[in-house]
Amino acid sequence: xxxxxxxxxxxxLSFSFVREARAEYPDRPIHLIVALPPxxxxxxxxxxxxxxxxxxxxxxxxxxxRPGASGIVAAEAVSTAEPDGYTVLxxxxxxxxxxxxxxxxxxxxxxxxxxxxxxRAAYVLVVRPSxxxxxxxxxxxxxxxxxxxxxxxxxxxxxxxxxxxxxxxxAAGLDIVHIPYRGFGQALPDMMSGLLSCAMEIPANVExxxxxNNLKAIAVTxxxxxxxxxxxxxxxxxFPKVIVDGWQGVLVPERTxxxxxxxxxxxxxxxxxxxxxxxxxxxxxxxxxxxxxxTAATVFRNDYERFGVILNEMKGTQR
Length: 319
Prior knowledge:
Largest sheet: 6 strands, mixed
Structural class: alpha/beta
CATH architecture of the largest domain: 3-Layer(aba) Sandwich
CATH topology of the largest domain: D-Maltodextrin-Binding Protein, domain 2
């Protein structure tokens, strides 16, 4: 009888152990929701990291692109998912500007938990060569001479490059029409045909077109020149307050357990420290970050609040 009881207890403990082992995160595929269209540089970064993290975790990471409303569509979808670590958002700092610029009721700070900031990048102001300008000063002079005649694309209303464009318009007193596209791949034909005057874009998206002289870079949005275009001056040399740094980040629903957040952070940071990842991101014009989740949360919250103040001060600016 005693032996039988011991056998039952041992079997129960063994079953419990196996059940707990199977429940260890992750034990099934993770869905990585990317807030931009496929094929762009941000999507490329997401897929590079998904491959590395998947190999380390031993579970597939399924990349799904859900562009729209400068990141709000993807963010809302993730925020309402089960907070279990199996639905993860890959987005950009557009999420700190788009709710303000679109007057959205969605509050990303209250709805999402940052896991890690992945990479940082500037934005670059490019023009078509036929516009006939070779510098920011010449561009500003032309825009002032032709109010409302020039138009400029970004990858969406409320995106960081849109914010940078609006800050430039506000600082220089310009009337330039903003035309949003889902990605630069859609804007390029209009730029080449002369329908678009300029674009505020991620450097990697326009680098090749600049190399073959289809586009001309005239300014960047960071405080200092960037490695990919070392000879292109910052807008801030003429208008000191026009500084917009973009970042990419990984976030999860707000109630996700800290143990899951910590595991994801560890895996993404490890992937970002991989020399192959560093090389590939830098070739795309991005500088890897890979911070802890608390630091990522602080940057996310501070950017959201800072851009809210800036945009409220810019009320009345034509969008």
